[in-house]
Amino acid sequence: MRYKKRKYFLAGRINLIQRSKIRELFEKARKMENVISLGIGEPDFDTPEVIKEAAKRAIDEGYTHYTPNAGIPEFREAIAEYYKTHYKVDVSADDIIVTAGAYEATYLAFQTLLEQDDDVIIPDPAFVCYVEDAKIAEAGIIRIPLREENEFQVDPDELVEAITKRTRMLVINYPNNPTGAVLKKKTVKAIADIAEDYNLYILSDEPYEHFLYEGAKHYPMIKYAPDNTILANSFSKTFAMTGWRLGFTIAPSQVIRDMIKLHAYVIGNVTSFIQIAGITALRDKRSWEALETMRKVYAERRRLVLKHLHKMPHIEPFRPKGAFYIWAKIDPELDMSSEDFADWLLENAGVVVIPGTAFGKAGEGWIRISYATDKQKLMEAMHRMNEALSKL
């Protein structure tokens, strides 16, 4: 019997994953000159010096070996202390796993809790990784729209309508990427009650928790549905540590135990000296002072960008109260899709924005603008956009 020769073999499930439209746009922009990117969701600040010094000391002190799979005990204790201090939530260090950023935390949740024929509810629009994680888990995907008239909060009534007998998990991400929306306390409580009533897990992705404006507050889901919540968080945004790949998950004991098993075979453990730096990030007041400086700068940039966008033709911004993004509506009279509009701005203004459809079908007609870049570039980008749009 002869077998057909192939150069390579690929698992079928890998073809289910779509390449990020965000990355595709960046690659196109990279080939052009004099482009200003308002696309990437990454702080333009450097990691606070006190955190960098802690990592260097940790290397010199011999933190270059394996750690427990779940993470260094003192670091997990520091995370538990943080939730007690900031939110008055009691968390056991044993219910925490240190992950390679929130990306791994969400991946572990999908793989641990979902299987073929389970359903997961994902808002639309939503950050790009959730749908792809669901595909890898072979779960059914139910999208519920986030509506402008509801300030892009999840509508509890629509949530209940979307639940099926197969629904196992709901994804929540507030402060929200891409809209910058925050959840009101009553909505958090309503979602928590629904999860308990229908025996659902909530994957609550909360990396933008400290970037809040106009008196907005963050209410961690774990405070209201502790037995149903898998909380994913990251040091990337809070302490400008994107390249460090440091995050964590808090979950009920029976869930965290199995997430640790999977994590052990995926990466083993997060880099040891980076975990030590994480302890300093949480416990040293200089880290929090640096965060407050970042937040004030973002607040000023947000104010300036909103001011300029309100004066521009053919675009109308939603007023965000969290994160560092502006979700802006495209004039429907232009008869341009989100992708066409983003391409047009790149070609005619030399400015990168992200088409709303990168985050789901409900993002059609919108773009995401990041103000995580320095003020001078932001103002130049606003000038370019206004000049280009004024010619339409």
UniProtKB/TrEMBL annotation:
This is Aminotransferase. Residues 34-384 form the Aminotransferase class I/classII large domain. Its cofactor is pyridoxal 5'-phosphate. InterPro entries: Aminotransferase_I/II_large (IPR004839), AspAT/PAT-like (IPR050596), NHTrfase_class1_PyrdxlP-BS (IPR004838), PyrdxlP-dep_Trfase (IPR015424), PyrdxlP-dep_Trfase_major (IPR015421), PyrdxlP-dep_Trfase_small (IPR015422). It comes from the Archaea. Its EC number is 2.6.1.-. The keyword Ribonucleoprotein does not apply. Keywords: Aminotransferase, Pyridoxal phosphate, Transferase. Belongs to the class-I pyridoxal-phosphate-dependent aminotransferase family. GO terms for molecular function: pyridoxal phosphate binding; transaminase activity. Transmembrane segments: none annotated. One of its GO terms (biological process) is amino acid metabolic process. PROSITE patterns: AA_TRANSFER_CLASS_1. The keyword Transferase applies. Homodimer. It comes from Thermococcus siculi. SUPFAM superfamilies: PLP-dependent transferases (SSF53383). Gene3D superfamilies: Aspartate Aminotransferase, domain 1, Type I PLP-dependent aspartate aminotransferase-like (Major domain).
